[in-house]
Design brief:
343 residues; alpha/beta; Spore Coat Polysaccharide Biosynthesis Protein SpsA, Chain A; three-stranded mixed sheet; 10 helices; 14 strands; globular
Length: 343
Amino acid sequence: MTNTPKVAVVILNWNGIKHLSEFLPSVLASTWPDLDIIVGDNGSTDRSVDFLKNNFPTVKIIQNDQNYGFTGGYNRVLKQVEADYFILLNSDVEVHNGWIEPVIALMESDSMIAAAAPKIKSFAEKDHFEHAGAAGGFIDSFGYPFCRGRMFYEIEADKGQYEQSGEVFWASGAAMFVKKDCWGLAGGFDERFFAHMEEIDLCWRLKNMGYKIMYCAQSEVYHVGGGTLNTENPFKTYLNFRNNLLLLKNNLSFLRATAVIFMRFWMDLLAIVRFLNEGKRKDAWAISRAHQNFVLHIFQRGPKTIKRSNLPSLKGMYKRSIVWDFFIKKKRTFSSLEADNFY
């Protein structure tokens, strides 16, 4: 790279003083030469801002007046950030000092690359991938997201099986690199999502515009995960099911979305039955509420009307049902899926 791009690492914080104290020092040790470290505070009440001012005076602080969620929080903060590249980084992520360089080098190699993510591994088990991103995100024909290295609850050990960088369908919001211009063209996050799957929606919009989303194997970070909403939280269940339907509506053609969403309602009914059989009535009710909310707001528009490309990128979409292949055909690892079944 002849001219060094300006990079801003932007951490959205909400009552995360514990994570900031533990992980911010590793971010500050990053070796990228033209770098801003910014914490966007989402109306915290745990004295996070005072803690930052007293302990990390070089960190820039941008304060929101209340908690706008992951989507609204980032949208407001990033309007105030000047850089060529944004790195959206969760507060519970540990990085190494040279983690930025390989990803920016990859993105600078092609003007059509809009976003990318490093390899995301578990902070607790550093030889394993982490649920939120692993070695790049994919999606099946019914809108179910999965990762190379993580399919549903099955998480693989990193044995060097995914060391090839390349195009994927979505980059994890836990550590997402995105070109500022592309962020603006896509209109940022859809604030209806609040949290969960908003990065998949953003990446899909970018792909519909003809851009590429990449996975960079030469950089890895370690994510704690579940810092704000743990996996057993019914609100998380609600967001995942409601947002998945929004994802389909936002990004598929009307006819295709109608058909897929109709099928998803029936597939979600099976999930309700499973939760009831497991005694998880709150989760079952959360799916029902997700359906109700989706129907009530079905005619709401997304964040921006994008200019769709005549050649949208389908790279990283799985042509089959990952639910069928995982639960019925017992294909539990990404490498067990046939390459011919991907676009």
